[in-house]
Structure formats: C-alpha cells, structure tokens
Amino acid sequence: MTKVLIIAEAGVNHNGDFEKAKELIKVAADAGADIVKFQTFKAEKLVSSSAKKAEYQKTNFSESDDSQFNMLKKLELPFEWHQDLIDYAKKLGVQFASTGFDEESIDFLEDLGQTFFKIPSGEITNLPYLEHIASKKKPTILSTGMADLQEITEAIEVLERAGLTKENITVLHCNTEYPTPMEDVNLNAMIQIMQVLNVKIGYSDHTLGIEVPIAATALGATVIEKHFTLDRKLPGPDHSASLEPDELKAMVQAIRNIEKAISGNGKKSPSQSESKNKIVARKSILLNKNLIAGSIITKEDLVIKRPGNGISPMKINEVIGKKLKNDMPVESILSWEDLI
Hints:
By secondary structure, the protein is of the alpha/beta class.
C-alpha cells in the first residue's frame, strides 16, 4: 500500500503573523505530517471590494466589518516570507507547500520549487485558473467542496485538455462548511468519485474531531488534508474548525495505524502474531473419567476443554467408539496415538 499523504493545512491560521506561521510549521513537523500547507494570494486578485463574508466567516471572525476583502487582506502570506518558511520547514523535516489562488501566486510557487499544486474548492469552475495549473504539468490535487460529479468531471477534462494526465490528478472529496456537520460528510461520495472518474482519491476534512479522516483512510483515501491551528480560540475564519496540536498528532498517528491495519494481503488466515495463541484459546477432547485399557469410548466419557494441543472437538464423532490403548486418568488430553 502507498503511504497516505497527510497535509496539515495551516491555511490562513497564521493570522498575518510570521512567528505564528513558524509555530504552525513546528506543530506540523512535531505531529509527523508530510506537508504543512499555507495559502498564497493577494486579496486584490482574489475578491472584489463588494464581496461579503460567508456565514461561517462572520461567525468565526467576530468583526462588525462584513468585507471579505478586508478580512483576507489581513490574512495574506507575504511573498517575502515564503523562502524563510520553506527553509524553516526543511530544517524541521516537513515539506512546505502553499495553495496559490491566482496565476501570479502559482508562478511564484513554481519558481520556489513547489513540486505539486493544490486547486481549492472555490476554483473548480475557474477555467483560466485550471488551465494555468495544468500547464505546469505537475501532480495536482483537486478539492471538490460545493461541487457535483458533473462539475468535477468537467474540471478534470479541462486539466487533461490543458496537458495534465489523469495519473497526475488526485481528487479530494470535501464539504465546504466550517465546521461540516457529520450528517453532511457523505463519505461514500469519495468512493463514487474513484469508481466513476477512475482517479486517485483523498479527503479534505472540515469536521470537528479526527474520526472522519481516519475513516476516509480506511476507505482508500491516498491524501488526507486537515486544518490545524495553534489555538481554536484565536480570531479568524478557520480556527474554530481546526485541530489543535495534540489533536493533529493523534490524527496522524491514527492514520498511520490504519495504514498498517489495511496493508495485509486481504486473505483470511492466521497472522504470525496470533498463531501462538491457538493452543491457549482452542479446546481439545479430554477424558471425563478414569478409563482402563480396552474401554470403548462413549460420548459420556469425554469432555471438551482447553488447551488445544490434542484432538480437535471437530473430530469428536471419530473418537466415539474407539478403544483406549492404555489406562488413562480423568482429564487426560487424547491423541490419536491413544486410540485403536
């Protein structure tokens, strides 16, 4: 089995603070994530001055100002921070990445040597954006929050026409509500995406807790993306639906455990670790009383008890009617050598 790629999504949870961005990288590295990912954009290219906040942004960002532009302007990751953050991540043993939200940001990330691109859910219907990403011909992860199967199909077709092969596309099932209600997760849709579109699948999670990413791993996700924060009480649009450091670490460990649990050959047979317990847990046929040599064994002469190093109880009907070779005391474990 290929190792699940775990993306710790820092997103905009740095709150425009360079030191917080570094702290987030350290948390991701300490948790054992493969990638710590931020968001690269210029608010001027992302939203118009008239764009309003989403409901979850209003709820999670307690400001009276309803401007999405003003909110995002405070959450930019300045271009000049990137190289220092890349170097810091490398030092800690975790890969830095970022989602570019416009063509300039994508080109900037490419120049920095980013090895893959992430298409956020909101850009799945952005034709020029999709074509620009595809032109880079690098592995691409496509999030699908708010999309139906037809929109996902069309986005993949755009990527393929623009030069990206399907083998380089991973599609993440996603629900773009922060936090996502459990009843809206619809995790089986991830399986539909894989079966109908014949692509690698993953899951980008916005639920509270770590159960759903773990379940997605068990269902075959090859990529798991999960938001995390230094503290859920911090102000900002995504903090309240993000994992805190200890939770991120627990999620990573659980996913690694699930990887091991589903990595077998799929054939039911005793494992090496459990084989030694057969004798302890199974039973054998024992004598229920003292018997002398030549006794013809009846059902009443027998009892079934542990350990399992004698004749299997499955063979009891073959034992009944046999003669005993030698005198044997009560609770003797029978073997075929004891019988005539």
